[in-house]
Amino acid sequence: xxxxxxxxxxxxxxxxxxxxxxxxxxxxxxxxxxxxxxxxxxxxxxxxxxxxxxxxxxxxxxxxxxxxxxxxxxxxxxxxxxxxxxxxxxxxxxxxxxxxxxxxxxxxxxxxxxxxxxxxxxxxxxxxxxxxxxxxxxxxxxxxxxxxxxxxxxxxxxxxxxxxxxxxxxxxxxxxxxxxxxxx
Length: 184
Description:
This protein is an alpha/beta fold.
């Protein structure tokens, strides 16, 4: 079993990266092979809307680092997307990644690559974990629409200071549970 993690935080030592690492450690403990992609460190261009993918079996014409992620998704059993909330929603790096999955709408993804499990971990500075769930759930629903087996959305709030999550055992337990659930 292979689980990939998509880290969209641009911060070094971010709460998002720490949460994702903990989730993937829990997946590893259950026997999964894991890999993390740091979107901010990769050369990924925005979707060009050229519809090349419509006439090329869902293959994107843009030859950038997203090609590595496509390959990893196609080979993986599960994906954990980890993102901070910036202004009521996922950050730009997460949206860039999500938008580039448009090519998967253009052909029978599940029939070709099988059902993939999907979970999203979100870190936010605000204390109320329900505050942004409306917009965040819309992002999660896109993966369900693609045919992913959505395992849920986990929000870890009150984490505006980098590294704050390290001292929050309950939040670390929550993200570890995500990593365990995605390999079940």
